[in-house]
Design goal:
The chain has 442 residues and is mainly α. The protein is 69% helix and 0% strand. The longest helix has 27 residues.
Length: 442
């Protein structure tokens, strides 16, 4: 084994250690959240019986269950192996790392190997990233959708699988960018036959979704399910359809937005615009990586961004993750691509995208100083490898800070994570009572 390979494995092991440390300590200190109980109770039951049922939302496949099974795959595996609540929560993060590593391994010829280090650490700069510990589906479903975007120009069949999984086993909101992407492709492509032949792959996950829904839906069959689902969609504040005619600025001011500090507002409002500027500047080389990749990335990001700011009535941070995940991870996947060239302006835009998401002002200042030093010292010949190494270093510094913070703040409300109310609830299946006990216990 070469010296460089040994170094890489050592660095990767350190990153994984700190990432697991952050995740476990935070998993041990997170308080109760009703959405977590709904998600994990339904998903654990799904993987055993194919019934997505939280036990208190009406019955199997309640339309109020908004996160699909892929949001809790890690939790289910961790729970079944250990019956430890903390480890099960942490396993969701490990599952994220697994799907990232799997995608990068299959496409390793395209990427610098340091992308593993950056992509693992990048999870912790996503606002409200710990929704992953709660088994919420925004981040994992958007990652699957992103894989579909990146592959669409070269392998539409696999992309259709990724899109379908992200929508029907993740978050249904992702059907919005999918339809936009599909419409653009129908208009733009000359090979409409190839696009048509790829669509059956989209229906493979869809069929596996609708069969148990039709068999087990508590209020009827598949038609009843979709009738109830669209009724909920029309009235749900998060969807925003009911308030389309309401003043946009009034919706924003009356939402959670008013409680955000300046840096959070910058992350969610401005950073995606810098990302779009970065895309536009590099549209030719982005399209050289995959056919119409610039258009697909830009359109999917814009439609989710506009839905969040102009349509959705509730500006919950977790809802912003659908486009923030695209902003952060597509930035990294583009710049770590071996065929992507960086000039000085690209490097400045790159760091302007990343800096605001760092977790502490001191980390931001240290990172800014390192970047400034790199830029000044190499202003005439800024090597891409040094830039990528600095990105990995900055993201790792952020992880070190979070490790310290999570250890200081940890509160073992479940003692050691064993013998929790959740274990008792899975045996007794008492629904509403279990939910209330869970909310009381943590």
């Amino acid at each position: 084994m070469s010296t460089n390979k040994i170094k890489f494995i050592s660095y990767l092991s350190i990153v994984l250690f700190f990432s697991s440390f952050i995740s476990y300590n935070l998993a041990a200190s997170l308080g109760n959240f009703v959405d977590e109980y709904a998600s994990i109770a339904s998903i654990v039951k799904y993987f055993k019986t194919l019934k997505l049922d939280a036990g208190f939302l009406g019955g199997p496949y309640s339309v109020q269950l908004t996160s699909g099974p892929i949001s809790g795959v890690g939790f289910f595996i961790g729970w079944e192996l250990t019956k430890n609540f903390f480890i099960a929560r942490t396993s969701n993060v490990l599952f994220i790392f697994l799907i990232l590593a799997s995608y990068l391994f299959v496409n390793n010829r395209n990427y610098d190997e340091k992308v593993y280090l950056a992509s693992f650490s990048a999870l912790f700069i996503i606002p409200w990233w710990y929704g992953v510990l709660y088994s919420l589906g925004e981040i994992v479903s958007t990652l699957f959708f992103m894989f579909g975007i990146l592959n669409f120009g070269n392998s539409k069949k696999y992309s259709m699988l990724f899109f379908s999984i992200s929508i029907f086993f993740g978050k249904i909101i992702l059907v919005l960018p999918f339809l936009v992407l599909l419409l653009i492709e129908l208009i733009s492509t000359e090979n409409k036959k190839g696009l048509l032949l790829s669509t059956p792959y989209f229906f493979i996950p869809f069929i596996f979704h609708i069969i148990p829904v039709n068999a087990f839906y508590h209020a009827g069959n598949l038609i009843d399910y979709y009738n109830d689902f669209f009724d909920l969609l029309l009235s749900h504040k998060g969807a925003g359809i009911e308030t389309l005619n309401k003043n946009i600025f009034e919706k924003i001011i009356n939402s959670e937005f008013s409680q955000w500090n300046f840096i959070v507002k910058f992350r969610i409002l401005i950073s995606p615009l810098i990302f779009l500027l970065f895309l536009y500047k590099n549209k030719e080389q982005i399209n050289s990586l995959s056919e119409r990749l610039f258009t697909h990335i830009g359109s999917c990001t814009i439609i989710l961004y506009l839905w969040f700011w102009l349509i959705s009535e509730t500006k919950w941070l977790r809802y912003s993750q659908h486009f923030i995940v695209l902003v952060i991870y597509l930035t990294l996947f583009l710049v770590f691509n071996k065929n992507f060239k960086l000039d000085n302006l690209d490097t400045i835009l790159l760091f302007l995208i990343i800096f605001p998401f760092l977790s502490n002002i001191y980390v931001i200042l240290i990172s800014f100083s390192l970047f400034g030093y790199l830029l000044i010292k190499n202003k005439n010949n800024l090597q891409k490898d040094r830039t990528l190494s600095l990105i990995c270093m900055i993201l790792f510094l952020n992880s070190i800070y979070l490790s310290s913070e999570s250890y200081t703040n940890k509160i073992y409300t479940f003692n050691d994570g064993n013998n929790t109310i959740f274990q008792e609830c899975l045996i007794k299946n008492t629904g509403e009572e279990c939910k209330n006990n869970y909310l009381g216990e943590i």
